[in-house]
Specification:
mainly alpha, elongated
């Protein structure tokens, strides 16, 4: 888990759920990298979407590039 956290920032919204007769189960959901990319993508689409000059694959790769930069800045 620690190595994966270095790559993608770890889970964005982890939580532990335990029923009355079960052992705790951990749900990790999306990674922090995915969360940052989604936020960056929203901004790109809001700003550039009306121009139709960027393909969806370019917007997605740009979003992850921004997410990676955010993870690097966060680690400093």
């Amino acid at each position: 888990m620690e190595d994966q956290q270095k790559i993608d920032g770890g889970p964005a919204f982890p939580f532990k759920c335990q029923g009355p007769t079960t052992a705790p189960e951990f749900y990790y959901g999306m990674s922090l990298r995915d969360y940052f990319a989604a936020k960056a993508m929203q901004g790109d689409i809001a700003h550039y979407g009306h121009e139709n000059c960027w393909s969806p694959s370019f917007i997605a790769s740009h979003a992850y590039e921004m997410a990676d930069a955010m993870l690097i800045a966060r680690a400093k």
